[in-house]
Amino acid sequence: MYSVYLVEDEPFSLDMLKHMVLWEKYGFALKGEFASGDEAYEAMEQEQADLVITDIVMPGMDGVELLRRSREAGWSCPFIMLTCMSEFHYAQQALELGAIGYVLKLSLRPERLASLLDKARGELEQRDKWRRLNGIGGGEALGAPSAAERLTDHPQVDRLVAYISQHYGEELSLGSLAKLVNMEQTYVSNIFKKKTGHTITNFTQKVRVEAAVRELLGTTLPISAISQRCGFANDNYFIKVFKRWTGKTPSDFRKS
Question: Which residues belong to any copy of the Response regulatory domain (predicted)?
Fold first, then answer.
């Protein structure tokens, strides 16, 4: 069962939410209830849930700020937002930060909540699949490097750095990388640049060129084969990017 934190300051809404669906039917179990974002954040610092369902407007830390701070801390658990029609612009902010969806409190229906639970479970199952493929235990943060391997103070940025460094030979898009860490694309771009000093595109090119240098110096593979192995779309693009970074074409670099 995946664990759920409910964050809602109105007792009536909280009670209705708790009894709206059979949580176990969708693969979830209620783990904690909190009346504010501050309380929920303190709990998450000690032990994270797999899913957070939170009201947006609450005393103290609101739901959007809870989501924002969770992402800045590198926690990638899915968020479902509870909102009123008059708060819709806050829901939009939450979606931009990577929330998987929202529920209108004034017309809260079991089928709407159930559909979002299905979506959340799908993302969590993908998370678990990624962990198994990469040999990561369930107790660790998703894909987080060990303390010795961390490059920044943001676990999810470190995870992206590690993933790009290991999978540079594959097609890497902003969309796929954002999905990997369960964040919105614009937010991923901004936080990656802030923490590493590189855009994602710039960092990916850097890793690929460094790999190409190793291939040029350590193998006799033709330029076209190295281009393909290092993830470049075609030979012309490889030559252009390589020269931009090294000042030489791959052929001239190998000769020198």
Answer: 3-120
pLDDT in tens, 192-216: 988 888 999 999 999 999 999 999 9
Residue 34's nearest CA partner among 57, 20, 21, 53 is 53
- Please determine, for residue 173, whether its predicted confidence score (pLDDT) is greater than 50: yes
**pTM exceeds 0.85 for this model:** no
E-strand stretches of the chain: 2-7, 28-34, 51-55, 79-83, 101-104
Same-domain check for residues 155 and 108: no
User: 72 with 173, same domain?
Assistant: no
Count of C-beta atoms within a 10 Å radius of residue 252: 12
Positive or negative, the Cα torsion across 15, 17, 19, 20?
Answer: positive
Q: Residues 113-134: what's their mean pLDDT? A: 80
What number of CA atoms fall less than 13 Å from residue 223's CA on the CB side?
15
Q: What percent helix, strand, coil does the chain show, rounded to 5?
A: 60, 10, 30
| Number of Cα atoms under 13 Å in the Cβ half of residue 102 | 25
Residue listed under structure tokens 């614009």: 186
Distance CA 218, CA 61 (A): 55
How far is Cα 125 from Cα 236, in angstroms, rounded to an integer?
Answer: 39
Residues 76 and 106 grouped into a single domain: yes
**Residue numbers of the domain that contains 41:** 2-133
The single-letter code of the amino acid at 162 is A
